[in-house]
Amino acid sequence: MDREAFQERFGLIGESAALKQVIDKVIQVADTDITVLLQGESGVGKDITAKAIHEISHRKHENLVIVNCGAIPEGIIESELFGHEKGSFTGAHEAREGYFEKADGGTIFLDEIGDTPANVQVKLLRVLETGEYFRVGSSKLRKTDVRVVAATNKDLWQLVQDENFREDLYYRLDTVKVKLPPLRERPEDIIPIFRKFVTEFSAKYDSVFKGFSDEAKELLISYRWPGNVRELRNVAEQLVVLEKSQFIDTEKLQKYLKGRQHTGSADNLPVLANREQNQSDNSSSGRGFDDGDQQLIYRALVELRNDISELKKMIGTFLYSTFSQKNIKALPQNIQDEVQMGNMPDLDIDTESSTDEDIGVQPYTEADITEEDEEEGATLSRFLNDDEIPSIEKTEQFLIEHALKKFDGNRRKASEALGISERTLYRKLDQYDL
C-alpha cells in the first residue's frame, strides 16, 4: 500500500514531511509481528495509528483489543489483562478470560502503557517475551499469540530513570518507536484538517460555514493546539454549531481557543487588529479607543501581571532552594540583598529579626564558597543584570535550563527547585521545545 492510498483509507489529511515520515514507517512495519511503541502527546491520533497498523497487517481478520492501562484501577488490572478463575477473589463468581486471551491471533493495543502498575509490568514483560501468562487464581500456564502495539504520552525513559518503569520492559517495548508529531510541528496541515472537519460537521448539522478571515487563518496556524487534532476537531464542531452561518474572524475564533499561541501570547487573549487599520478607522470615525479596546488592554495587563507574579515566584524559589543549602552569600552582593530583603515572593525572610540559622544558612566563611557556587552566582548575575531586560518567557526558559543542568536532567528535583509542579515543568519544556 502506498502513502496516498493509506491516507485516503484512514482519513489522514496533510502533506507535511513529519506526517509522511510517520506514514512511511507505519507501512513498513505494519505487516510484521514486531512490537511497536507509539509516542506522542494526547490527541495526536495514537489510537487511529494503532488501528491502521492492525488493519493492514496479516492479522487484520482477527481481533484488535484496545486496552487503556491508565483507566483500569490498579486492583483489577491484572485480572483484566490476564483473566481470572472462579472464586479467585471476592466477586469472582465465574471464570473470565482476559484481554490477552481475547486478542489471541490478533493485535492488542496497550494505550497509556506508562501508567501500568509495577507488579503488572513484570507479567507484561513475560507475556511479551514468551507469550506465556497465568490467570489470576490459576496455576495453569497459558499461551497467547498476539502482536503488541503500545502507546504513551509520557517519556518512558524518564520514568525508567525515576524508577517508575522497568528498564527491561522499556527495551522490550521500544523495538520500533513511532513518534507522532504534535499539530504545532506540522502547521501546513492545520487548515486542510480544519476544512475537513468543518465540511463533515456542516453536513451532519445541516449548517452553512461561511469561511474565515485571513487573520483568523493565521491565528489557527499560530495557535499551539495543546489538545492537537482532538482539540482542532472540537473547535471546528463548536464553530459550525454555535457560530452558524457566521463569517469567522479572530474575535469569534479566539473564544474557542484555550491554550497558547506559538508567539507566547497570554492564554485566551484576543488578537489586536492591525495598527494601520485602526488608524484608518479612527481617522474616518473621528474617535480614539472605544470601550472594547480598553477592555482588551485591561485583560492583557491582568494576564501580564499574573505571568510576572508567577515568574517572580519561580526566580525567588529557585534562588533560595539553590543557595540556602550552601550559602546565600555565594551570590553576588546585589542579588544577596534582594533575596535576604525578601523582595522575591514566598521566601519569608525577615532580615531584621531572623538569623542565618533561622533561614537555613550556616555561618558564612570565605572557605564555604566553592568554585561551583561562584560559577552559578556569576551565571545568574550576568543574566539578571543584563542591560536589556529579558522577556518573561526568556527568563523562564533560562531558569528551567539552568535547573535541569544543575540536577543532571532530574525533572523532579528541578521542579522542586523552581517551585512548580512536575506537570507544569513538562508543559514548560514542551512550550519552549526544550
From TrEMBL:
InterPro entries, sorted: AAA+_ATPase, AAA_lid_NorR, Homeodomain-like_sf, HTH_Fis, P-loop_NTPase, Sigma_54_int, Sigma_54_int_dom_ATP-bd_2, Sigma_54_int_dom_CS
Record domain Sigma-54 factor interaction: where: 12-241
Region of interest (Disordered), ranges: 264-291
One Pfam family linked to the record: Sigma54_activat
Keyword Repeat found: no
CDD domains assigned to the protein according to its UniProt record, in alphabetical order: AAA
Stretches with biased composition (Polar residues): 275-286
Domain of life of the native organism: Bacteria
Name of protein: Sigma-54 dependent transcriptional regulator
Protein's organism: Fodinibius salicampi
